[in-house]
Amino acid sequence: MKFSTVLAFAALFFVLSSPTLLAKSNEEYRSEADQYYSEQNFKKAYKIYFKLAKMGDHYSQGQLANMLVNGEGKEVDLEKAYGWSTLAAEGGDEMLSQQSDELLEQIGDKAKAEQTAARLMKKYGQDALEEKARKRENRLRAHEMGGCTGSKLGCSGS
Fold first, then answer.
1. Does the residue 156 lie in any domain?
2. Which of 9, 48, 117, 124 is the most exposed place for a label (fewest CB within 10 A)?
3. In terms of residue numbers, what domain contains 106?
4. Which of 24, 50, 108 is nearest to 66 (CA)?
5. Residue 5: inside a domain, yes or no?
6. pTM score
7. Does 13 score more than 90 pLDDT?
8. What is the CATH number of the domain that holds 78?
């Protein structure tokens, strides 16, 4: 009986940690957000796009920017819109980069907009997300190698 329980947990862990399944899940969430958006249920669409945007989804970052420009789901906020559009442009899409530049031209306080973009980039930009993933991997590796004591002090090698 114990072996089957361990096997079940191992199978569950594999399924939950599979990058392919996680990517599919993100696509399903994006599709759900798109559906809410097309139904003009902007608050629900915004909420899902925001979760995906924080995970580095450039499409969702671009959608957030557009929604903030148009006041869909949130009040109009051109500075945050510029910040999210800058993150979206980080994906390499030339059109998004151009839209980001055009948006900055519409903003009165460009310095404040640049600060907002820098804060978002520091928190959700590709480099920041890669650093978070690296730290998470190091913690997992330390835990597997016995570097964790089980206390609230954490693991060595983080």
1. no
2. 9
3. 18-144
4. 50
5. no
6. 0.72
7. no
8. 1.25.40.10
Q: How many structural domains does the chain have? A: 1
Residue 143: pLDDT band (50, 70, 90) is confident
Residue 74 lies in a domain: yes
104 occurs within a structural domain: yes
The pLDDT value recorded for residue 11 is 45
Using the structure block, give the residue that is written with the tokens 């559906």: 35
